[in-house]
Amino acid sequence: MANTQTGVQVELATEGIATIATGLPVLDRLVEELAAKGRFRLVLEVAPGEAEAEVAAAGRALGEALAPLLRAAGAAGHGWAWLPEGEALAGAVLDCSDSPLVASNVDFSNQPLGGLSSDVIARFLDEVARGAGLNIHIRVLEGRDPRHVLVAIFKAFGAALGQACRPQGGAA
User: What class has domain 6-165?
Assistant: First the structure.
């Protein structure tokens, strides 16, 4: 990951808009959902390289860019959301933490994603948690279609992040 070049900019916005190029189109689409539901103006680019390293670098860069927003004066520092996609329903709860982690009831290790056999989503979320200093809990209540489940997760995660970066009560 150390050799993988990234560029990232994250700002709070009234409407989420994203330009994403991680090298993995499925991940690009998921991060676009995160930006839309979190109401972030987000640019994330990862130099082409080995796919696993691209995913890790993208997650770490996004987390590091979110950290100042999460800890800004007045920011809530915590958030939660439940959102659907098709038949899937996912929730995300997060809090700033000195002991970052991701806890989830989802296992995609046997679900190939974008041609990768490993659980790239878990790796991405873990790197976001480490980079931002977050305790993240992801729960899927319903869902059969893996793509719907992933989109629901990223929508809920984005909404929870947007809530955590704004003052309590959701203003701004």
Answer: alpha beta
Q: pLDDT averaged over the chain? A: 90
Work out whether the CA dihedral 43, 48, 50, 53 comes out positive or negative: negative
Name the pLDDT band for 24 (thresholds 50, 70, 90): confident
Residues 47-76 pLDDT 10s = 888 878 888 999 999 999 999 999 999 999
Coil, helix or strand for 122? helix
DSSP one-letter string for 15-74:
S-EEEEE-S-HHHHHHHHHHHHHHTEEEEEEE-S--HHHHHHHHHHHHHHHHHHHHTSTT
Is residue 6 helix, strand or coil? strand
Question: What is residue 113's predicted lDDT score, i.e. its pLDDT?
Answer: 63
The DSSP secondary structure of 66-97, one letter per residue, reads HHHHHTSTTB--EEEEEEEETTEEEEEEEEE-
Residue 126: partners with Cβ closer than 8 Å, 6 or more residues away: 59, 102
pTM for this one?
Answer: 0.92
Residue 137 bridge partners (DSSP): 93, 103
Largest CA distance in the chain: 42
